[in-house]
Design a protein that fits this description.
This protein is of the alpha+beta class and about 190 residues long. It folds into three domains: about 5-60, Beta Barrel (OB fold (Dihydrolipoamide Acetyltransferase, E2P)), CATH 2.40.50; about 75-125, DNA polymerase, domain 1 (Orthogonal Bundle); about 150-190. Helix content is about 45%, strand content about 20%. It has nine helices and five strands; from the N terminus they run βββαββαααααααα. The protein has a five-stranded antiparallel beta sheet, sandwiched between helices. A hairpin with a 4-residue loop joins strand 4 (about 45-50) and strand 5 (about 55-60). Helix 2 (about 65-75) crosses helix 3 (about 80-90), helix 4 packs across helix 6 (about 115-125) and helix 8 crosses helix 9 (about 180-190).
Length: about 190
């Protein structure tokens, strides 16, 4: 429902913040990783995930798209709810989680509060090959608007193409900065 919110940070704590977006106050649950990145900011953009439950609507905020995507991947695992996913992402960065999963390092996952041996193994099994570290790529800035290449990358990922494959395809296009989003996506799909 909400892709992101951009506004003034009215209240900040390590797990919760209030954001004023044009006079509307949003309460967002955040991870420690997000808090560390936006702790000194007065305004920022947070990528959001809305969880609708029978008893409440809960909004989660993430400093970058990579953390939100990882959170959503964790939610797809049986036995891992939003609270557990948030604890995992508060304890480990997305890169640390990816290394633990690709190295089948269940001990690292077991050190996270509330994660036992079985859940750690399930996380490794379910996420193996799905989490890809973004090396030498630009992170989406919390305050500036996306570039055409970033928008095309997001569209390709939303089409089900892995981030690293989509980035590789965009890099192969010679005149990428001068193309429209639609042209860039079409050419990237041809390169794949």
């Amino acid at each position: 429902m909400f892709a992101f919110l951009e506004g003034e940070l009215v209240y900040k704590s390590a797990s919760l913040l209030y954001m004023n977006v044009h006079g509307v106050g949003y309460e967002l649950n955040i991870t420690l990783q997000t808090y560390a990145k936006m702790q000194t900011l007065d305004k920022c953009r947070l990528y959001t995930h809305l969880q609708v439950r029978e008893d409440a609507w809960v909004l989660y905020g993430f400093f970058d798209e990579e953390e939100r995507a990882t959170f959503r991947q964790l939610l797809n695992i049986s036995g891992v709810g939003a609270a557990t996913a948030r604890i995992i992402l508060s304890s480990l960065t997305t890169d640390e989680l990816e290394r633990a999963v690709s190295g089948e390092d269940s001990r690292t996952l077991e050190r996270v509060k509330g994660i036992g041996a079985k859940t750690a193994q399930r996380i490794i099994l379910e996420l193996k090959g799905k989490l890809l570290r973004r090396e030498n790529t630009t992170s989406l800035s919390p305050v500036k608007h996306n570039t055409t290449q970033e928008d095309a990358l997001i569209a390709l990922v939303n089409l089900g193409i892995s981030r690293s494959v989509a980035e590789g395809a965009i890099k192969k296009i010679n005149n990428a900065p001068s193309l429209t989003i639609e042209e860039l996506i079409k050419q990237a799909l041809r390169v794949l």
